[in-house]
Amino acid sequence: MNKITEKIRKTGVFYLATVDSENQPRVRPFGAVAEFEGKVYICTNNTKKCYDEMMKNPKVEICGMLDEGTWIRVCGKAVRDDRDEARQAMLDSNEGFKNMYSIGDGILEVLYIDEAVCTEYSFTSAPVVIE
Prior knowledge:
Layout: H1 3-11, E1 14-19, E2 25-30, E3 34-36, E4 39-45, H2 49-56, E5 59-67, E6 70-81, H3 84-93, E7 108-122, E8 128-130
Antiparallel strand pairs: 1-2, 1-5, 3-4, 4-7, 5-6, 6-7, 7-8
């Protein structure tokens, strides 16, 4: 598994930062992550504001705690993937979502983080880039 996907998965809940139409940062909790074709994927519902924000400005940042005093930040560009294979990979990796979404439901959107850079931070040591 991709090291970045592993790190995000370890956080349990992670926070996705986007920018709204008034150039105001917005942060939301997320919990679903998957790896497909070696890329880190997240998902959302296309009726949510965060989806619109990512379509208008794809620059995003993910942040999550790994354990006490250690956290990650992942920055990159959210790129929509309209393939059902990518949607299925997300559903297969996140069983709970099968109650909320399905292939062909018209609302499940999956996005991969292009140009993802993951950095692990700690209160006690220098930042480490995860590749």
